[in-house]
């Protein structure tokens, strides 16, 4: 009770965000740890871009159950096959399989072409009354897929490193760790949720995560800018007051900006299909946690650094 009275007396604003930093900091730490454990145990389901293999997207004029399609690929002895409905539809599917590597690239390509031809011919025969249409066939070799995966995750690492350098130069270098912790927090939790709902990670999704990192960074920079402006206007106040006052001042802007972006991504997720829907889902999750972390991770981290006497001591 005394703490609440002190908060009102200091004029923090409508909400005492810093006063809840221990609670939400603990929640964030648990979410990140749980996400890392989940990713380590469950593993990431990589799409064809990273895992390699062949995808055949087929559309039927009438409904075909996944059990019927599974029975078909079993009859055709398609190796390492995985079936997925396209956008939750029961008339469009993606047939994914990995061809065993041959002694040479030519032998591997011949096996792949033979399987694709067999699938195409078999679909026309078995589902002739439902008019199957092969909409696309994509193939990525395992070596190429491995290289793409390595390059993709290196891109994320270098992105975080460059952001660390940029924020160090853009602000006082002591703000940089908080920004990078915030971005890593958003990326890890978003990736874990994406995997938890059974979606695949491929190049477009990795691009979406990089986009989220940029979005979260923009939000974090706005917060840091406001903190610096508030520090100049209230230089006699404590760091706790400055951070709280700054977040309260930019709260309306944050709600409007994040809210409109979230609604746009949500409509894309609801009405789009395939990769666009997956990207929109990642954006929705990332926007939510990006906004949350800008308030409860990045800014309060400056207070944590102040307590460790890395930031300048608070003035009385």
The percentage helix is 55-70%
CATH superfamily of the largest domain: Multidrug efflux transporter AcrB transmembrane domain
Query: What is the level-2 CATH architecture name of the largest domain?
Result: Up-down Bundle
Biggest sheet character: 4 strands, antiparallel
Number of strands: 4
Number of helices: 11
Spatial strand order of the main sheet: 2-3-1-4
Number of domains: 2
Helix/strand/pairing class, anyone? alpha+beta
Low-confidence segments? 1-9, 310-316
CATH class of the largest domain: Mainly Alpha
- Mean pLDDT, all residues: 79
The coarse silhouette is elongated
What separation lies between the terminal Cα atoms?
Answer: 23 Å
Write the layout of secondary structure elements.
Layout: H1 2-10, H2 21-42, H3 48-51, E1 53-59, H4 66-75, E2 82-85, E3 92-97, H5 105-126, E4 133-140, H6 142-170, H7 176-196, H8 203-233, H9 239-249, H10 251-271, H11 274-307
Antiparallel strand pairs: 1-3, 1-4, 2-3
Helix pairs in contact: 2-7, 2-11, 6-7, 6-8, 7-8, 7-11, 8-9, 8-11, 9-11, 10-11
Structural notes for this entry:
The chain folds into two domains: 2-46 and 145-307, Multidrug efflux transporter AcrB transmembrane domain (Multidrug efflux transporter AcrB transmembrane fold), CATH 1.20.1640.10; 53-140, Alpha-Beta Plaits (2-Layer Sandwich), CATH 3.30.70.2040. By secondary structure, the chain is of the alpha+beta class. 68% of the residues lie in helices and 8% in strands. A four-stranded antiparallel β-sheet has the order 2-3-1-4. The radius of gyration is 25 Å and the shape is elongated. It has helices spanning 2-10, 21-42, 48-51, 66-75, 105-126, 142-170, 176-196, 203-233, 239-249, 251-271, 274-307; strands at residues 53-59, 82-85, 92-97, 133-140. The protein has eleven helices and four strands; from the N terminus they run H-H-H-E-H-E-E-H-E-H-H-H-H-H-H.
